[in-house]
Automatic annotation (TrEMBL):
InterPro entries: Diverse_substrate_MTase (IPR051052), Methyltransf_11 (IPR013216), SAM-dependent_MTases_sf (IPR029063). PANTHER family: METHYLTRANSF_11 DOMAIN-CONTAINING PROTEIN, METHYLTRANSFERASE TYPE 11 DOMAIN-CONTAINING PROTEIN. Gene3D superfamilies: Vaccinia Virus protein VP39 (3.40.50.150). The lineage of its organism: Eukaryota, Metazoa, Spiralia, Lophotrochozoa, Mollusca. Residues 50-140 form the Methyltransferase type domain. Transmembrane segments: none annotated. This is Methyltransferase type 11 domain-containing protein. GO terms for biological process: methylation. CDD domains: AdoMet_MTases (cd02440). Belongs to the methyltransferase superfamily. GO terms for molecular function: S-adenosylmethionine-dependent methyltransferase activity.
């Protein structure tokens, strides 16, 4: 998490986490399919996806029909407690984007984060993504709006 955000005060109330789960906008099926199609370009075997900053799992469960296993990770115990428990290939854990000791190095096909990457320590999270991703793995950072980069060559990659 960013040093400017006090994560101890985020989603500590079960009522707050339940409301977040109920009222947060949902992502479209088209978003998940687009990310999965992109990931398949370099790695057609979709075994494991990790969704960091998953909250109650709205983005996590969107990947379940594409991957053998999907894991959601969030710093908030109450957010994880609100995640669904009845999806056989989906698991949720309390943890940090930059410290995933329960994930084997080189085992992840998709490392993703929906609408929460801004709250994570970027350098350390990218280092952990590099550790857990298998060769050809994909990092997908997404939200409700398309981001733009100041440099055209970077923006071209983001837009793809």
């Amino acid at each position: 998490m960013s040093t400017t955000v006090d994560k101890t005060k985020m989603y500590v109330s079960m009522d707050q986490s339940k409301a977040y789960s109920e009222f947060r906008p949902r992502y479209s099926d088209e978003l998940f399919k687009t990310i999965v199609d992109y990931a398949k370009e370099t790695n057609p075997n979709l075994n494991l996806a990790i969704d960091v900053g998953c909250g109650p799992g709205m983005s996590t469960i969107g990947f379940c029909k594409y991957f053998k296993k999907v894991m959601g990770v969030d710093v908030s115990e109450t957010q994880v407690a609100c995640a669904p428990k009845n999806i056989p290939n989906c698991e949720f854990k309390v943890g940090y984007s930059d410290k995933l000791p329960f994930i084997k190095s080189g085992s992840v096909d998709l490392f993703c984060s929906g609408e929460s990457f801004n709250l994570m320590p970027h350098k350390e999270t990218f280092a952990e993504a590099d550790r857990v991703l298998r060769p050809g793995g994909t990092i997908a950072l997404f939200g409700y709006d398309v981001i733009r980069a100041a440099k055209p060559e970077i923006d071209a990659v983001i837009q793809k």
